[in-house]
Model the fold of this input.
Amino acid sequence: MTALDFNTATSLPRARGEVVLSAKRRGAASVLDRLRQAGSLKALFPRSSGGPLEAVVLNTAGGLTGGDRMRLSAEAGPGTALTLSTQAAERVYRALPGSKAGAGVNLTAMAGARIEWLPQETILYDGAALDRRLRLTLAADAAALVVEPLILGRAAMGEVVRDAHLTDRWEVTRDGALIFADALRLSGDIAALMDRAAIGGGARAMATLLYIGPDAAARREALRAAIGDAGGASLVRDGVLFARMLAADGFALRARLIPAIATLAQGPLPKVWRL
Done:
């Protein structure tokens, strides 16, 4: 069973969801072009007064467990600006032995476009199993911002993740050439792994940020200042700025993550982040 095998049969009811959408230009504004949604994944579009098209993705199944499959595909057409977020934190619950949830995000930015993927936190519960993959395809002059916050058990609820599995793979191509890749794997006693000084130093929350644009180098110091001692940011190649952050819990993570996103975003944070 692969992470994105949407046709695998299971003995228990499992959630399936898919959203496919694209943006186009209408005057100075970016507006919805195409939309297809199926199963338990839906897209909502808050009202805007022009500028970027904002889409909010909602999983009506209420979370993920073993065997669930979700897929989002979004395209920012030529000259458009598209910002995607999620209505709430995505919860990944205990899975049956040998069963994993799968989630895929496929993003495309055409010539002169900018796309942003700013989901709220993924919360990993004890016993959870998730394989996730993100693919970002960019035209030569396109720009992108990608953020993935992760909470490893809710500290305020006394939750400890002693047995869980997560893989998270990112691949970015520009004009067909691979320009960035990152792979994260946490498996087994995640609390013990995160307690190790070389891995998490006791952190129970983390976030990964990727910014791609011609002004990436100019934004590096502002991003470092926003992150402070919670992590680091590096210009991994020309036009590609990458950062990873650690925090004791979700509250502490947000305190640093929101200013960090604000230094890189094309406008105000999505409304769902400000509620």
Notes: Residues 250-264 form the longest helix (15 residues).
